[in-house]
C-alpha cells in the first residue's frame, strides 16, 4: 500500500509540466539568440522557469533535442539549436535521386511484380519418384586392399652399404 501512495504525487508533478518539445521551443524563442541556443543555455532557461523537473532532466533534454532535430522541428548549426527557416528549401535526401520512369502508353495493363522468395510447392501435385543415380560403384572411399606378399624384400646378402651420402659419380 505504501508503494502505491508514493507513486501518486510524482505523476501529478509530471502532469503539471508541459511537454519537453514545447519547453525547448519556448526556451529557444525566449532566448532569441541569432546564432541559436546551445544545450546548456536551453537547460538553464527551462530550470529557471520550471522548478519541479525530474532528476533525469539533462538526459531527457538531450533525448528530446535529438528527436526534434531528426524530425525537423529544430535545426542544429555549430552545436546551437534554432528554429528552422520557413523559407529554406527542404533538405535533400542522401544518395543519387532515382531516374524518372518513362510513361507507359495508354491501355497497357501493368502486371503486379513477382513476389520475393521461392514459390510454395503445390500440395495437390503428386511427389516425384526418386531416380537412383548409379555409376556402377558404391558411394564413399573404396576399402583398402590387404597385400598378401611382404612389401619389403630382404636385401641381397653381398655388398654392404657405407655410412653417409654416396660420392658423386
TrEMBL record:
<keyword id="KW-0677">Repeat</keyword>
<dbReference type="InterPro" id="IPR036390">
    <property type="entry name" value="WH_DNA-bd_sf"/>
</dbReference>
<keyword id="KW-0238">DNA-binding</keyword>
<dbReference type="GO" id="GO:0030261">
    <property type="term" value="P:chromosome condensation"/>
</dbReference>
<feature type="compositionally biased region" description="Basic residues">
    <location>
        <begin position="160"/>
        <end position="169"/>
    </location>
</feature>
<dbReference type="GO" id="GO:0006334">
    <property type="term" value="P:nucleosome assembly"/>
</dbReference>
<dbReference type="GO" id="GO:0006355">
    <property type="term" value="P:regulation of DNA-templated transcription"/>
</dbReference>
<dbReference type="GO" id="GO:0031492">
    <property type="term" value="F:nucleosomal DNA binding"/>
</dbReference>
<dbReference type="Pfam" id="PF02178">
    <property type="entry name" value="AT_hook"/>
</dbReference>
<dbReference type="GO" id="GO:0000786">
    <property type="term" value="C:nucleosome"/>
</dbReference>
<keyword id="KW-0539">Nucleus</keyword>
<feature type="domain" description="H15">
    <location>
        <begin position="16"/>
        <end position="85"/>
    </location>
</feature>
<dbReference type="GO" id="GO:0045910">
    <property type="term" value="P:negative regulation of DNA recombination"/>
</dbReference>
<protein>
    <submittedName>
        <fullName>HMG-Y-related protein A</fullName>
    </submittedName>
</protein>
<dbReference type="InterPro" id="IPR005818">
    <property type="entry name" value="Histone_H1/H5_H15"/>
</dbReference>
<feature type="region of interest" description="Disordered">
    <location>
        <begin position="71"/>
        <end position="169"/>
    </location>
</feature>
<dbReference type="GO" id="GO:0005730">
    <property type="term" value="C:nucleolus"/>
</dbReference>
<dbReference type="InterPro" id="IPR017956">
    <property type="entry name" value="AT_hook_DNA-bd_motif"/>
</dbReference>
<dbReference type="GO" id="GO:0003690">
    <property type="term" value="F:double-stranded DNA binding"/>
</dbReference>
<dbReference type="Pfam" id="PF00538">
    <property type="entry name" value="Linker_histone"/>
</dbReference>
<dbReference type="InterPro" id="IPR036388">
    <property type="entry name" value="WH-like_DNA-bd_sf"/>
</dbReference>
<dbReference type="InterPro" id="IPR000116">
    <property type="entry name" value="HMGA"/>
</dbReference>
